[in-house]
Amino acid sequence: MSLQHIPVLKEESISLLNIKPNGVYVDCTLGGGGHFTSILEKLGTDGFLIGIDKDKRMIKLMNEKLGDRKNVFLIHDNFKNIKKIITNLGFKEVDGILYDLGVSSYQLDEKERGFSYMEDVPLDMRMNEEQEIKAEDLVNTLSEKELTEIIREYGEEKWANRISKFIVAYREQERIKTTGQLVEIIKNAIPARARRRGPHPAKRTFQALRIAVNDEMDSLKESLYDAVDILAVEGRCCVISFHSLEDRIVKRVFKYLAKDCECPPGLPECVCNKKSELKILTKKPIIPTKQEIGQNPRSRSAKLRAVEKV
Ligand SMILES: C[S@@+](CC[C@H](N)C(=O)[O-])C[C@H]1O[C@@H](n2cnc3c(N)ncnc32)[C@H](O)[C@@H]1O
Question: With 0-12 CB in 10 A as exposed, 13-18 as middle and 19+ as buried, what is 101?
Fold first, then answer.
């Protein structure tokens, strides 16, 4: 297997993690191991690195690549279980956590997995192939309203209404089983003049379905609170996101945890006792340079936010 994934904002995120050679670090989105390997290079023999991925193929691949390393753990799981994973490995706290969200080029390149609208294959899109629900289940069972919401919200697709209407009309005649069928439905739903501009007409809908199939937004929300909880004082958490909704979740969770008191204004004294847990290290998210975008167009929408535990 060959890996073609170019890690996004690698120098910036690794530098913000401020790696201590004897620290304990978690890469929540192992993928092809681009960021993971850079962290590992900075660790000494006393340091530990834990890599998590819900895609078993990524774990297998990195296991083959790394061989037996005493200070490395590769875990096939959802990063929303980060606390349980770390506790089961015997760690009480960690010094740094990295998330590089979304799908890897490697997964997109594996044609049979159904992530790409460029291939005609079964409509799957599961990052974790042990999961039951596939994209095929969503397009054939969700109501028109639910489909519209998913396509509009996760795909930021202005033709969401029409696309879901066309999906529902099609499936009344025949089950939608392949990416090819879905691409045709989308092309028929979007007026020709709108299809001539911008990216591939199916890009947004495919992104939306992938996010829904893999429950990406809820996993992130659940994971971030626990991640901050298991950070040691001065430990850092860095998140690279690719979608405005993801970035909004990261920004809001960090902002909430960095805030001291949450009492309504006008109270004579604080009754909530909420204490700030974080210092925000990136007032504005870090974005890729023009040069990085030129070399790796996939980095175009990336945003990096980082915090430090206080
Ligand atoms: C953008 S790739 C990471 C690429 C990696 N940083 C590199 O440089 O090679 C994201 C990876 O995170 C995994 N992933 C996405 N959501 C996840 C979740 N909730 N739990 C665990 N892994 C997840 C995907 O399967 C994918 O392999």
Answer: buried
